[in-house]
Fold this protein.
Amino acid sequence: MRSVILAAGLFAAALGLSACDSSKTADTAAATPPPAPKDTARSQQMYQGQELVQKLDSATIKVGKAGTLDMQAKGGVGMAGYKNATFLPRINGYPPTDGIYDVDVVADKPASGAAKDTPIEVKGDWTPYPSDHLKGVKFMSKTNSVVAMLPAG
């Protein structure tokens, strides 16, 4: 009797495994989207109390005086009292192939405060910027990013 139950269990296990399709077919491989391109830049070290702003709404860049890129970004933070807002260009091992450099938008977080969406405007410059490769700047926040391209000409 024991051997009959053991044989029935072995048969059920074999039947269950045969229904399993562990191999990938060409149809399922074609249906999966390609992976997102990996970001090759890394953030600079921030000072104690600095953090990325919550969100970005818009950004602009333009070539300023010799060797300077004037940058401006508008967005929002989670509470009032953020100060010393600035830009931190990310560190690249080599120039981006698309010419778009990443820049973190950071500010000093207040010690405490009530949670309230508050607008923030950040202005600054990048000196010296990689003028021979730069076509645009991707401004990074906690929740999104905004790309600003250099004006033509």
The chain has a mean pLDDT of 83.
